[in-house]
């Protein structure tokens, strides 16, 4: 069950973190001037507005609704996913090659001490 009060608090905290005002979101998403205040007070927006809000704030809809991220990715992991999604096909291949080469286990040295 969605806690409407917690939804409003999460929305407000995300806005503070991103230094975004009610009027900025209202203008960017073409919302009624009272909409953000209503959401902060626990009114849950419809799915399309929730989707736009989450994208605008750079968070998931799941986080706004339930207070947790899918898979609880770190900020760095989320940033990497965002870079990948914005890249063209060539960029995506480069990102994958880099990730594969950086995650390969270092080969153990065959040298002996003594």
Secondary structure topology:
Layout lengths: L3 H14 L4 H8 L5 H6 L6 H11 L3 H6 L8 H12 L2 H15 L11
Q: Features of this protein?
A:
114 residues, mainly alpha, 434 Repressor (Amino-terminal Domain), 7 helices, 63% helix
What does this 3D model show about the protein?
- The chain has 114 residues and is mostly helical.
- The protein folds into two domains: 4-71, Orthogonal Bundle (434 Repressor (Amino-terminal Domain)); 73-103, no CATH class.
- Helices cover 63% and strands 0% of the residues.
- The chain has seven helices and no strands.
- It starts with a helix and ends in an 11-residue tail after the last helix.
- The mean pLDDT is 85.
Which outline best applies?
Answer: elongated
Helix-strand sequence: HHHHHHH
Can you tell me the residue ranges where pLDDT is under 50 for at least 5 consecutive residues?
none
Radius of gyration: 20 Å
CATH architecture of the largest domain: Orthogonal Bundle
* Most strands sheet: none
Q: What is the CATH first-level class name of the largest domain? A: Mainly Alpha
CATH-defined superfamily of the largest domain: lambda repressor-like DNA-binding domains
CATH topology grouping of the largest domain? 434 Repressor (Amino-terminal Domain)
Beta strand %: under 5%
pLDDT averaged residue by residue? 85
Separation, N- and C-terminal Cα atoms: 65 Å
How many structural domains are formed by the residues?
2
Number of helices: 7
